[in-house]
Amino acid sequence: MLGIAYTECFGCEVNKKLQALGMKMHNYHHFYDDCCTANFLSSPTCHVFVCGAPCQPYSKAGLQKALHDPKNGEVLLWVLAWICGHQPEAFILENVEGLCTTHRETLNIILGVLARMQDSKGKKLYHVEHRVLNLCVHGHIPQNRSRLFVVGLRLDRLQGREFSWPCEIPTLPLSDFVKGKAKQGPLNNTEAKNLISVQRKFAKTGRSLKDKWVIDLSASEPHAMHDVSPCLTRTRAGSGGHYLSWLGRKMTDSEIFGLQGMSLEKFPADVMSSRELRLAAGNSIPVTLLARLMSQVLSAIGRGP
């Protein structure tokens, strides 16, 4: 997408099927099945390190235990240890907005550790910034997906260059991502009940389901957005995405992937089930947003096109 030659130094994933998918789609020189190990810390270094750590410790849908989460809380600590030991030229860390809002104290710890890292001469190692970016504002795609990004740039690589965050850009129309009719089964009981609730609310406010409303029918309280998809979380994507009112159906797999900046056709069909692929899509970093941020990072460290 950026037109830049690159080498995939290594990858890391704990889920067995995602491991198989990653190794089939990429040419990793090394692959690790757990970042919370000394083996991972001994991995090769790289120019740019990208990490989307599990979001459940910081998500509204998770346990809200941050670094104390029994399953994934320590992941970011190991990531910090890797950065400190390998000192890549740049890094990009991604997580849910909740890390910046609900768990601000945890973010402050992370930023503090990164800011205090030093090189072999005792000099400050990184310029660190963080910002919340929304896919529908900064990545072209009509999905309301806000995510926190922490960017670190090694000071010896900046050499007077400045880093700029991706600017706001026009959102592409939803019609570019949603295509006509598709055969699907009936809504489940919760979805059907919530659709009736939405119909009643719309009738009172003069809105029409014939307009382009994208509705989360799986939540305890249904949520509708006009011309923009609500966030496709892991759970929502796994359950078939959101309801498209003007088409009278939920999203197709291709539409879910498209709203994450990916083409389903590029994924092998013999590694994971359709539902497993959707779950993975909901957990991913949107490609267009990451590409725009990566372009800015590479330019700042003198490795842009």
TrEMBL record:
Pfam families: DNA_methylase
Gene3D superfamilies recorded: Vaccinia Virus protein VP39
Active site feature: 55
Family annotation (InterPro entries): C5-MTase, C5_MeTfrase, SAM-dependent_MTases_sf
Presence of keyword S-adenosyl-L-methionine: yes
GO BP: any one term: methylation
Alphabetically ordered keywords of this record: Methyltransferase, S-adenosyl-L-methionine, Transferase
Alphabetized GO MF terms: methyltransferase activity
PROSITE patterns in the cross-refs: SAM_MT_C5
PANTHER family cross-referenced by the UniProt entry: TRNA (CYTOSINE(38)-C(5))-METHYLTRANSFERASE (PTHR46098)
Family in the record: Belongs to the class I-like SAM-binding methyltransferase superfamily. C5-methyltransferase family.
The protein's name in its UniProt record: Bsp6IM protein
Protein species of origin: Symbiodinium necroappetens
Organismal lineage: Eukaryota, Sar, Alveolata, Dinophyceae, Suessiales
Gene behind this protein: bsp6IM
